[in-house]
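Hey, I was hoping to borrow your eyes for a little while. No rush at all, and the record is pasted right below.
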Amino acid sequence: MSADSIRGHVGTLLLSILVASVCAVAYGEDKPAELPTALATSYLPPDASFAILIRPAELAVPEVMQPVVEAFDELLKPAKLGISVADIDEFKLVLVGVVDMMERQGPRLVATRIVNTYLVIRARQAVDWKTVFGVTGQARQEEIDGRKLYHMRGDGAALWLPDERTVVCGALGEVRRTMENPDPNDRESWTDHWEQAARSPLAAFVRMSELEEVAAFVSGLEPIERQEEALATLVADAEYGVLQGNVTTKGLEISATVLTRSNEGSVRVAPAVSLLLTEFATTIGSELPAQQADAAKLREQLAGLLGSTQIVTEGKTVTVKALVTPKMIEVFSATARLLARPRQ
């Protein structure tokens, strides 16, 4: 499996997350009574650079999120999962050492390898994960403590089936690491904050020292000058950022916290966050041709989202709060479906 292939799966899922907010059924294969603690929903390795956690089945319950479910299902048709996104309990993507993954190709920074990356998907029912990920009978197998690990072709990728509902894929070393029980005392300054956020159906983490590389990995683009300045400010003045999202009767409530290195640093970080959010919305708003009616609706809702976003500093903490209203969810989901269609 190539880096582009894995990134293709991840990119599709990230697009769906953005607008709202993956080996065979293990017949007779080893099914440990208890999964390793490294597979716990709330667990992140101490050296994580970036993570995004989604519980699609939980997010899909409220009626307000149905447009997102429909958009997800349409976007994921090429993956041939055979189930709705509403039947996926958990999706967790973890990147470690993103700096080592990026390579300049002309004006772009691209992920050319899958070094230190892994993806965990847990469905509500058994799924033929081997077929989904193209594992054939010729795939080389490795057994670790009675658990089977499948070596994929190219890039040192691997696949592990903890049980009939769950798949772990990514870099061989990282997939092996998910088979272990890490030291519970090996915690970072952000661990408690992440574990609290991970109780929500949507959560994300970023280590600010690698923010520029994470941004390039997700977007595939180099930032323009003013974005570079804002990113540099966060890298210099902030330690980490944690985001969580919860669905209420009002819509999708987003809360993000950035911990900076000093009180003075938070004063510099707040406007940098504001600029990056504005640039991000502008970029998304320009994806559709200006003459399309959908483009006007999208820009109107993005402007409304930016206008209602609150950024507050208190000591070394910068807090960002936003509400994605039902109307915004409807328009963003429709946009995602439109962008996913093949261009003529």
Q: What stands out?
A: The longest strand covers residues 238-248. The mean pLDDT is 80. The CA atoms of residues 38 and 178 lie 5 Å apart.
